[in-house]
Structure formats: C-alpha cells, structure tokens
Specification:
With 536 residues, the protein is of the alpha/beta class. The protein is 23% helix and 20% strand. It contains twelve helices and 25 strands. Strands 18-19-20-22-21-24-25-23 form an eight-stranded antiparallel β-sheet, with helices on both faces. Strands 6, 7, 10, 11, 12, 13 and 14 form a seven-stranded mixed β-sheet that branches. The protein has a six-stranded mixed β-sheet with strand order 4-5-3-2-1-15, with no helix packed on it. The chain is elongated. It starts with 5 loop residues before the first strand and ends in an 8-residue tail after the last helix.
Length: 536
C-alpha cells in the first residue's frame, strides 16, 4: 500500500547565493508546510562564495532542510568538493558524489551525474565521460525488474530534449546540452529529470518511454530545467513537487498517460544511431533543387538561386528514392500537372487536388519521391508542419476547419489530403465519430492515438496504413493488414453527416476542364498568399 508522498524542492544554479536560497526555502515552508529535502543542480558554488559559505561550513548558519548538491562544473570550484564519492560539506548540506544512486529510507531512487560532458578520458574532476555514463547505466540496468528511476539529477541539459515537445524559448535543444545525458535519460527513464546551467526555466511536456501500439505502456518522464537563484528576470529557480517512490505505486497508476504526453525526444536519435547514414536535406535527390514559376501558364523549370553552386557540381548525390514508373506527383516529373500547383517550399509543395471534394481541397506533397510520411527527412517533416499551420490559419479565416488523411496503401507517392469542412457544418467530435462509425461498419480497426504521437514511431517504412489528423491535433490510425477501401477517407468526408456530397466520393467522377482547374488554382494561390510561408 502506498505511503505518504515525499515533498521535494529542486533548485537551479545557486552560484554561492546561499542566504537568498535558504531564505526563499524558509518562506516557501512557512506558506506551504514542511518539505523533506532540497535537490540542487548546476553550479552550487560561485566566484564569490567564500564569505557566505564560511558561515555554513562552520555551522554559524544551517540549511533549513536536508540539501543534496551535485559537484563542480568548472575547475575554479573543484576544491569545495574534497571527496569524489560524496561527503557532508556542512550541516544539512551533502555532496552526492560524481555519479551514483541515492536511495532514502522511503525507497525514493535518485540517480545523479555531476559535472559537464568531457570528450577525453580520463575526464577532469569537473566533468564526466562516456565511461562514467556507462558505469552508471550498468549499475541500474542490471537490477532485476528495473523500470526506471524516480529522479535524475544532472547539471547540463540533455541534447534534443525539445524534440516533439514545447519549445524552450530561444534555446536550441538540438545544439545545446549533452548527448551522453540524452543517452542516460533514455536508459534510466526518470520520472523527473532536473538540469540547469542555461539560466532559464523550461518545463517540457511529459514524454512517453514506450512506442504507442508497439510496446506495453510505461510511465512518462518530465524534464525540468531551472534558472539561477536571484536572477533579475525572475525566472523560476525553485520547483516544488510531491512524489511517491515508484516501488510504492500500483503498476496501473504508474503508467497512466497524461493527455499532453508526447513522443520520447531521444527515441529518434537512438534509432538512427543503428541505421546507415542517410542523405541530409542538402543531399536529397535533385528534384528538391528545382522550382516552378507559378506566374506562368505553363510551368517552367528554373534552377534554385545557385547558392553554393560549385559545391553542388562537385557533389553528385546518390538517388535513394526512385519511382518504379512514371510518377504524377514528383515535381521534376514531366507527368506532374503543374497548373494545379499553388505553393512550393524547399522540400514540399502544395497543389489543388484533381477531382477534389471541394474547390479548396489541397494536397501536401514531397518534392522528391517518397512513398509515405515515415520515410521523410526531419527537414521535410518540419516543412509539412509549416504547411499544416498555414492551412489551419487560412481555413479558419474562411470559417472552416481542416481534416487531413494519408493512405499508404496502393500508392506510389506520398499524398497528404487536406479537406476543409465548414465550422457550421459539424464539430470536430462529429467528424471523428463519423470516421470511427464507418470504420466499424466496414470492420476496420481505427484506433485513436495520443495527440503528440509521431507517426514515425508507430509505423515502420513499408508498413501499409491509413491515418487521419484533425486540426485540433486528434489522430486516428489503422494498420492495413489485408485489403482496404481506397476511397474510405473521401467516402467518410463526402457523407451526409459531413460535407453531404456523396457524388464526389470517387475523384474520377469529379470532372473539370483544364481552364476551370487553372482558374481555381490561381484563385486559391492568390487567396492563400498572405498565409504562405514559402517564397514563391
């Protein structure tokens, strides 16, 4: 049976401002009641720590609650930490050590790693190396029935922690932070991970430690970066929370998924580490390097602006995506119906659907040849997200919401169908219900997947599937095992319950002359232009 939750405070860089921190802790306790412990990450000591610290070291002053700190992050403060294995620095203030596990009588398990990442072996006294990380991982992963740790304490952020989640202001999490800590967090699956050093506050959305529809549910992790004590911007540096040790929780309670949970930010990089190196965005097939002049009636191919021209002549990229025959959607293909193209980005383009369910039914398509979303590069995915955001704003300005679907079955080139539905027609919940009901009638298992799920985590390249996304972020997914009705998505949206245009369910029955299609494309292009992020 679960006991009483522990009440914990976590703090960012103290930088020697001990009085300011402990006065704040006392104020919090006076207002909210007693806390059990204080955990400090980042730089505990600063360049002017000596005078204040002497009062705590000599017991003239005392920390108000048991305080546990990480070690040095620079050579100037190494001397404050006399024992690499951890020791008491002052009454109620304990240095945890360079790396290890701290377990209290309650069973709360805290993993910690002091210092910043080092590229050399052995690491200096203020750094950690890949060997340190491996030893810490092995000590935990060798434990029978290991599920994860309650808390992970590091000073640097983990590299890429912002992937699939909310963005931490101006911080670029793809460049800052430690790759080794990302690797550590992937393995240890902390319920809470605290870090500092960047002088800012960032509480990431909780992320999953399992792959939806492929693995059994596991608990979520929360990454929280804390600012420095006494910062003039008044960014949060003290974080209060209550926690029951993992071992005390009912398994069903432990794996409950909050609604805002996202994909694991480190999962992608972890998988790519075991894959052959793919071509980068700059090395994609030449189709990405040409753009069509949309101001002309007949699309002319014009080269890109030639930046880095010599380099592109020297480098002959290897084509890894080739259509098996003529492709109507590769932008470099002579078969593409260029008069329907309404916007072109670097990796993707937008075109009116031939035989659309409505005059503003559009397709988001990759410029090069890719069969499905799961095969796209991260750059192409980012551009698709930009198109979705632009279309959402555009259709909302017209009093509409969009429905997006992809059918990766008996199709050669990725087509993301984007169909606007008038707001007055039906609610998002009605649209979702229509898809689910019609799927049930046809014995199609259409599952609702978490809002922040990444389709690449659910389906592997080559897997046939059908996927629906509403502009609220709600998603439905079906893994195609045998046969699948090719017009299913159109049939649901054309039904009486939504657009009420049953005669347009089959695109081949929706005929329009080339002049009519060109006029519709021109009108859409002009209308969409204020919302279009691309430079035409």
């Amino acid at each position: 049976m679960a006991g009483k939750p522990l009440r914990v405070l976590a703090c960012g860089d103290v930088e020697g401002k001990f009085d300011m921190l402990f006065n704040r802790v006392q104020a919090v306790q006076k207002k909210s009641g007693e806390f059990d412990l204080l955990l400090c990450v980042g730089n505990f000591f600063g360049s002017t720590s000596e005078t204040e610290w002497e009062e705590y070291r000599t017991c003239a002053k005392k920390a108000p609650i048991p305080t546990y700190v990480l070690g040095a992050n620079n050579p100037e403060t190494v001397h404050y930490f006399p024992d690499v294995n951890g020791c008491e620095l002052a009454e109620n203030i304990t240095y945890l050590g360079r790396k290890g596990i701290f377990s209290g009588t309650s069973g709360l398990q805290i993993a910690y790693l002091s210092g910043t990442e080092s590229l050399s072996e052995p690491a200096p006294a203020y750094s950690f190396s890949s060997k340190d990380v491996s030893e810490l991982k092995i000590s935990l992963l060798s434990t029978p029935k290991f599920k994860g740790v309650d808390i992970l304490l590091t000073s640097p952020w983990s590299r890429g922690v912002g992937n699939f989640g909310n963005k931490p202001g101006e911080m670029d999490t793809k460049r800052c932070g430690s790759v080794l800590i990302s690797n550590l967090a992937t393995s240890l699956k902390p319920r809470y991970h605290f870090a500092a050093l960047e002088k800012t506050y960032y509480e990431r959305l909780p992320y999953r430690n399992h792959v939806v529809l492929q693995e059994n549910a596991q608990h979520v992790s929360r990454f929280i970066a804390l600012a420095n004590v006494g910062n003039t911007s008044k960014k949060k540096y003290l974080y209060a929370f209550s926690i029951l040790p993992m071992r005390s929780l009912d398994p069903a309670e432990l794996v409950k998924q909050p609604q805002d949970a996202t994909e694991n930010p480190y999962q992608k990089s972890g998988k790519e580490a075991h894959k052959p190196k793919m071509l980068s965005g700059a090395e994609e097939e030449p189709a990405c390097q040409f753009f069509f002049d949309l101001s002309k009636r007949h699309g002319k191919k014009r080269p890109s602006d030639g930046k880095g021209g010599q380099h592109s002549q020297l480098k002959q990229p290897k084509k890894i995506h080739q259509p098996t025959g003529p492709c109507w959607f590769c932008l470099s293909s002579p078969e593409v119906e260029k008069h329907l193209v309404v916007s072109i980005g670097t990796h993707c383009y937008l075109a009116l659907a031939k035989g659309g369910l409505s005059d503003d039914h559009v397709l988001i398509l990759p410029v090069g040849h890719y069969q499905s979303v799961v095969e796209l590069s991260s750059e192409a995915m980012e551009e698709i997200d930009k198109y979705k955001s632009s279309l959402k704003k555009f259709f909302r300005s017209k009093g509409k919401r969009y429905v997006l679907f992809e059918r990766n079955y008996r199709s050669q080139h990725l087509q993301l169908q984007v169909i606007p539905v008038p707001l007055s027609c039906c609610a998002t919940e009605d649209i979702k219900e229509s898809f689910i009901l019609q799927a049930q009638e046809q014995e199609i298992e259409l599952l609702e997947i978490p809002e922040h799920s990444d389709i690449k985590q659910i389906a592997q390249p080559g897997t046939p599937y059908f996927y629906v996304e509403l502009d609220t972020g709600e998603k439905l997914f079906h893994r195609i095992k045998k046969k699948f009705p090719l017009q299913f998505g159109r049939e649901v949206l054309a039904s009486e319950a939504i657009l009420n245009v049953p005669g347009r369910a089959d695109w081949q029955q929706c005929t329009a002359s080339r002049d009519e299609a060109e006029a519709a494309a021109k009108a859409f292009r002009e209308d969409f232009q204020p919302f279009d992020f691309s430079e035409l």
